[in-house]
Design a protein that fits this description.
The protein is mainly alpha-helical. It has a single domain, classed as Tetraspanin (Cd81 Antigen, Extracellular Domain, Chain: A), CATH 1.10.1450.10. The protein has helices spanning about 10-30, 35-60, 65-80, 85-100, 105-110, 130-200. Helix 1 packs antiparallel against helix 2 and helix 2 (about 35-60) runs antiparallel to helix 6. The longest helix has about 70 residues, at about 130-200.
Length: about 210
């Protein structure tokens, strides 16, 4: 809920541009039959996979601190509730969707001399009992399995893409080698025919006088 989390569109655009160029390299390499481009495509996939694995390891190692981190981030953003309209939208949306109030309860708003937002109340005017931190941690726990499963599926697809990319590069190299060998054989055969033709002496033509003459 920090300020830099309120611009996901920029992050998605950046990721989309990277994926576009990596995919473009693979497509051009496959169409042009370029071993170099296909290998570069495979190396990019390996790099992306390594980055994803590193991010997963970092997230796993930090799983014990995520609760404290979210709690501190929520406290910092709540202090800016009257100053930043993005924070207002974020808190109101969070409280309305998750039916919660404050970080640990409505008292968090009172401690900051801020009027309890209307989103802390249901349509019937009843104040929500649970804090948003508790709701968020439950949501994260429930979603962890789905996120992990999705990450494994993506990693498997990328691994298959890496294998297929290098198999394609190997196939292209084999085809080019066979074509080059055939061209060399044809060239050698042509040179042999030309050399044989130059070595053959022309048959002499003998002219005889006409007997009637």
């Amino acid at each position: 809920m920090e300020d830099h989390f309120f611009s996901p569109a920029a992050l998605l655009v950046a990721i989309g541009i990277i994926i576009f160029f990596v995919s473009l390299i693979g497509c051009v390499g496959a169409v042009k039959g370029s071993t170099c481009l296909v290998n570069i495509y495979g190396l990019f996939l390996i790099l992306l996979l390594i980055l994803e694995v590193a991010a997963a390891i970092a997230a796993y190692s930090m799983r014990g601190n995520i609760g404290d981190y979210i709690h501190e981030a929520m406290k910092d953003s709540m202090d800016k509730y009257d100053e930043n309209h993005y924070v207002v939208e974020a808190w109101d949306g969070l409280q309305c969707r998750m039916q919660c109030c404050g970080i640990d309860g409505s008292s968090d708003w009172d401690n900051r001399n801020i009027t309890v937002p209307e989103t802390c109340f249901s349509s019937s005017g009843v104040e929500f009992d649970f804090g948003c931190h508790y709701r968020l941690m439950n949501l994260i726990s429930e979603s962890a399995l789905l996120v992990g499963t999705a990450a494994i599926c993506v990693a498997i697809v990328q691994a298959l893409g890496i294998v297929f990319a290098f198999m394609l590069a190997k196939s292209i190299r084999r085809i080019k080698t066979a074509e080059e060998r055939k061209r060399q054989e044809n060239r050698a055969r042509l040179y042999e025919q030309l050399a044989r033709g130059n070595d053959e002496k022309p048959t002499p033509v003998i002219y005889t006088a006409n007997s009637s003459a």
